[in-house]
Every structure is written in structure tokens, then in C-alpha cells.
């Protein structure tokens, strides 16, 4: 197909949905992060259960749950803030990142160490969840489309 035969060239209609920003990437990012980290946490919890018993499995699940809760909250905040102020959502998302780190530490400090908690499995699940969550989050966010300039046809005709 030559350039002149490409859709949208020489007056031919462009296929619908080819361009434009992603409506709200935050819920899609949340879904994919929860799926990826949830599957990994399930495998780790099963391994912990086999190697350390029920306490190990619960510890791994708890480590995942605390991280997923705090990381999920920040994506939900980005989603709801993005509805009214899409350009401000990223800044708010960055602020909530700092808040969730402090909140995560506060939960651990206030809860203390329950007698059933296997610290190695809890730590492994929490760190593994953080790392995998960040990888998935960055990957999915990098695939989202962000409109940087107003592509209004009226704005182009005023020049």
C-alpha cells in the first residue's frame, strides 16, 4: 500500500478510533496491576503455605493486601481527580505516592507484629508486590495515549 492509498489520505475516510487520548487510564492500570500482582501473590502464598504452613501463607497474603490497598487507593484518586482535571491527575498521583509510603509504614507500626506473621514471607510478598506493581504500572501507563495539544479543527483554521 503506497502512501496515497493509506486510509485518510486523498479524501478517503480514516478508520474510526485510530487516534485520541485514552479516556481515563487509571482504572485500566489498576485492573492490570491487581491481576498481575494478585496472580504472583497467589503463587507466593501457595509456596509459603507448603513451606511454612498457614502462617506463611497468611503472611504472604497480608503483605500483598497491604501494598495492593495503598497502591490501589492512589490509582483510584488519580481516576476520580482525572475526571474533573485530567492534567492535574498526574500531579495528584505523585503526591499520593508519598502519602501511601507513609501510610504503609504507619499501618505496620500501628499493627505491630501479629504472632502468626512470618516476617520473611510478609516481606517477600510486600517487596515483590511493590516491584511487580511498579513494572506493570509503568508499562500500562506508557501504552496510554495522552493528548498534549488541542487538536480542534477550529484552532487550526484561525491561523
UniProtKB/TrEMBL annotation:
- Residues crossing the lipid bilayer are 33-52, 58-77, 89-109, 121-141
The source's superkingdom equals Bacteria
- Which key words are in the record? Membrane, Transmembrane, Transmembrane helix
Annotated region Disordered: the residues are 1-20
Protein's name in the database: Uncharacterized protein
Q: Which organism is it from?
A: Arthrobacter crusticola
Amino acid at each position: 500500500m503506497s502512501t496515497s492509498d493509506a486510509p485518510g489520505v486523498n479524501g478517503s475516510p480514516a478508520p474510526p478510533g485510530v487516534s485520541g487520548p485514552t479516556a481515563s487510564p487509571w482504572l485500566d492500570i489498576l485492573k492490570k496491576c491487581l491481576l498481575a500482582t494478585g496472580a504472583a501473590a497467589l503463587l507466593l502464598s501457595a509456596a509459603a503455605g507448603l513451606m511454612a504452613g498457614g502462617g506463611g501463607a497468611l503472611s504472604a497474603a497480608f503483605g500483598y493486601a497491604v501494598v495492593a490497598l495503598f497502591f490501589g487507593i492512589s490509582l483510584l484518586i488519580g481516576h476520580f481527580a482525572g475526571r474533573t482535571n485530567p492534567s492535574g491527575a498526574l500531579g495528584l498521583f505523585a503526591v499520593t505516592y508519598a502519602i501511601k509510603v507513609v501510610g504503609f509504614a504507619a499501618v505496620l507500626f500501628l499493627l505491630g507484629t501479629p504472632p502468626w506473621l512470618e516476617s520473611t514471607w510478609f516481606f517477600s510478598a510486600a517487596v515483590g508486590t511493590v516491584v511487580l506493581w511498579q513494572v506493570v504500572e509503568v508499562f500500562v501507563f506508557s501504552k496510554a495515549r495522552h493528548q498534549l495539544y488541542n487538536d480542534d479543527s477550529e484552532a487550526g483554521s484561525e491561523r
